[in-house]
Amino acid sequence: MAQDHFNIGIVVARRKLASPWASHAWIPTAALPAVPETKPGTPLGRNGTDETFYAGDAEVTLYSSATGHYRDNLSAAVPSLWVVLRPAGEEVELVSVIADPYEGEALAGSIGDIVETVPMPLEIQARVHAFVEAFHVERTFFKRKRDRADPEALADRHPGVKDRRPRDREDEG
Q1: What is the DSSP letter of 170?
Q2: Is 155 in a helix, a strand, or coil?
Q3: Which residue, of 60, 68, 95, 160, has the greatest Cβ tally within 10 A?
Q4: Around Cβ 21, how many Cβ atoms within 10 Å?
């Protein structure tokens, strides 16, 4: 199976909340097509109540078996990357970045992790598109046909024969 690996940078925002249960929420906001020389956790700016940080770099892996999924992602109105963050105390840890929309949606149900989409930059779209062009194999859908049920097999096999299941000792009295 062919694979392609490349690293990208992720920007996150820490949004203040007016809640008695949490003081802030972490939200992925952007993917960078290349890894900057900035250290993870570096503040990038402030926009109202949001503070943005460079979360770090993550490796994106493309698999030839999932090219149909990548093609579906690229044909969406806004091609996206799924960013998985894990809260670590007051900070956040970048876990992974995924280009497969079906895998990303499956991860969205994981408890404790933050899974959000960010728009896929054009440079990454071009790389994913080139991978799909190089390795996609169209698979035809094959619908299986079920065997027809045999009504005789479902009927009593031995008419007139009593049930031979063992009975409880209490029933024998």
Answers
A1: G
A2: coil
A3: 60
A4: 5
Chain mean position to CA 7: 18
Q: Write the DSSP assignment of 32-81 as a string of letters.
A: ESS--SPPTT-EEEEETTEEEEEEEEEEEEEEGGGHHHHHHHHTSSS-EE
Burial class (CB within 10 angstroms; exposed 0-12, middle 13-18, buried 19+) of 10: buried
Residue type, 109: G
Q: Would you state the torsion angle of the CA atoms of residues 39, 41, 43, 44, taken in this order, to the nearest 10 degrees?
A: 60
pTM beyond cutoff 0.85: no
Q: Which two tokens stand for residue 119?
A: 């728009």
Distances (CA, A) of 60 to 85, 96, 132: 14, 8, 15
Q: What is the DSSP letter of 14?
A: E
* Phi, psi values for residue 101, rounded to 5°: -65, -30
d(CA 108, CA 36): 27
Q: Cβ(55)–Cβ(40) under 8 Å?
A: yes
162: which 2 tokens?
Answer: 């009593």
- Which positions ≥6 away from 124 have C-beta within 8 Å? 8, 31, 33, 60, 81, 99
In tens, the pLDDT along 5-48 reads 999 999 999 999 999 998 899 999 999 999 999 999 999 999 88
